[in-house]
Design a protein that fits this description.
This protein has 556 residues and is an alpha/beta fold. It folds into 3 domains: 184 residues, Up-down Bundle (Ferritin); 297 residues, Vaccinia Virus protein VP39 (Rossmann fold), CATH 3.40.50.150; 38 residues. Helices cover 44% and strands 13% of the residues. The protein has an 8-stranded mixed β-sheet, sandwiched between helices. It has a two-stranded antiparallel sheet with strand order 1-2. Strands 9-10 form a two-stranded antiparallel sheet. Strand 9 and strand 10 form a beta hairpin. Helix 2 runs parallel beside helix 12. The radius of gyration is 29 Å and the shape is globular.
Amino acid sequence: MKEDDQKFLNELEKKLWTAANKLLPSLDASQYKHVVLGLVFLKYVSDAFDLRRDEIAAQLRDPASDYYLDPADFDSPDDYEAEISEELEQRDYYTEANVFWVPSTARWQFLQDKNKVVITGELEVPDGNGTKKIRSVGQLIDHALEAIESDNTKLKGVLNKNYTRLQIDQSRLGELIDLIGTIPFTHASLDSRDILGHVYEYFLGQFALAEGKKGGQFYTPKSIVSLIVQMLEPFKGRVYDPAMGSGGFFVQSEQFIEKHRGRIGDVSIYGQEMNHATWQLAAMNMVIRGLDFNFGKHPANTFTDDQHPDLRADFVMANPPFNMKEWDSGVSDTDPRWVYGRPPRNNANFAWMQHMLYHLAPNGSMALLLANGSMSSNTGGEGEIRKALIENDLVECMVALPGQLFTNTQIPACIWFLTKNKKARTAASGRALRDRRGEVLFIDARNLGYMKDRVLRDFTQDDLDKVTSAFHNWQSGSDYEDEPGFCKSAGLEEIAKHDYVLTPGRYVGAPPEEDDGEPFADKMARLTAQLREQFAESDRLEAEIKKNLAGIGFDV
């Protein structure tokens, strides 16, 4: 992103977050999240509608356009303008361009114009075959969301229509409408989708921080998502996330494809999420970016109510809850997904993994973020499952991550990369892959990254590129070399000698010591002399302190 664009976005997000916090001090983050993101969604669909409306208006007046209306065909200028206005309300103009139809009472300008009216009085709006009386700002927003849902079946049950029930001052809610109304259409090379998508993602991250552990359940740090997407390269085919949260993997996939000049239309998005509110956030996240998606008929438990039973995806990516307990109520011990062993009841790590493998296409690739224990645990048969995965040559790469990457947990994490086909072939990105059968790449990335604040670590783009390049070069067989302390390609026999433990540190070894040119014997003599001097200075200071204490009557 251009420096000027990034500066603009940074200033915008700071302004919005600070102002919104002042407006809604009485709400906790879990409520505040839906209040703000619902309004950002309304602003986006309305902006997109207005942009399309302006395009149509220009075409209706352009003699070179197929939609041109000739003023000479009308009795008066008023009749001509009335016909233009009527044409602009034809739904087909919008749906043919994949733009959501927004009813008049859901358009942002209507909300901004009328929110002050309903604070002091009431407003009648069309509702089906009759009218409806609106008596609060919350009711005005809920009505707008209901109107959009009823006119767009894709959004049925997706929008969070709870503004009427919010226990907050109505004038504050009106001020929030005006505040979000200041988000501009464009800036330099950014369009409204770029800007509003960025604001939406920023707010998701801030809510995850504010809510702590609970908030982190719907938000995976962007740098980790970016790393997985860069490594998998989901250019073409079906992309699936069985624990999708707010849909971060799909957003990054879209941005990756656009960055590399691919076509987002070549990718089909499938997801599943059990939490209803998070399922709603994910759907809104997709709509804001104009992405088509299939998140199932409703929010559902992935293990007991699989929303995509017949799906075989080309790319599967997930960050499920770590070490999830009590996951298997209602799940059969003979479930067809447990090809490599029945996962233990007190930990769902290998249940997630086998669910993902079950839905993986024959040439598909997958990435799964798990706690480090998954690489070495033998509890509840996990060791046998891991051994079966390795012996069936499904594991392609293991990446150990640094600590402090997550807002919601300090548990050390790793990324498993698996594939059903390590034979030589061409990847979806067009890269030629060599025959990698019988090999696993280990990457220890624990020393990468920087502290972005006192508690959170993040990756730089150089860090992401370093890990990605090692993986891609290893896959293709070009420019790859083992690097002590960072990466190592190991055969299955070597892994068997380590009792099928997959911790990268066991394989990559230690980084080489930097040679400063000083002979070892000379260095030891110099350091020993320094240590002797420091011991002597310590003794002198101790004696001085005892002398001073004795002088004021303390015997040490």
